[in-house]
Task: inverse folding
């Protein structure tokens, strides 16, 4: 396994299938984070995923003027199977 330290804001990461990518980052605020490709055709083809961070501590209480989303998968799953701070991705 080869590990590289990459400036993710400027350096693209290319993979050839079959492949996987592990990303380590510091989660500062809880909540979903969308990671996506900035090339429209790639984004439309599904090059995007959501990192759920802060599942172990819970999300902040939303303001009262926000619609009730208590039926969502995030709040209705008390013991999520995904680990905080990990990126799960597969290639076809």
Result:
């Amino acid at each position: 396994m080869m590990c590289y330290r990459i400036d993710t804001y400027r350096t693209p990461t290319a993979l050839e299938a079959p492949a996987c990518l592990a990303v380590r980052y510091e989660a500062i605020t809880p909540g979903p984070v969308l990671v996506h490709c900035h090339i429209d055709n790639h984004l439309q083809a599904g090059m995007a995923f959501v990192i759920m961070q802060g599942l172990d501590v819970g999300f902040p209480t939303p303001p009262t003027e926000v619609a009730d989303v208590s039926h969502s998968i995030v709040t209705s799953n008390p013991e999520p199977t995904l680990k905080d701070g990990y990126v799960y991705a597969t290639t076809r």
